[in-house]
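call fold(seq) -> tokens
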Amino acid sequence: MDDKKDDRPLSFSEMLQSVLAAAFGVQSGKNRSRDFSRGKPSHFILLGVLFTAVFVVMLYGLVRLVLHFAGV
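ret:
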């Protein structure tokens, strides 16, 4: 029964958790080995690019907001 659980692909939340952990530079060895054994590289690349784009847009918006309130 545990073998079937180990063979299933990663869920979206598990992949998102791994991408966020990679962004902050913290990842347990257990999760890293899980990602390499059950995850698809294309999914991690797509989520990583998407996360980076959202992060950059949020930073841009935050800077624009601060500059607006500063009167610049």
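The chain has a mean pLDDT of 90.
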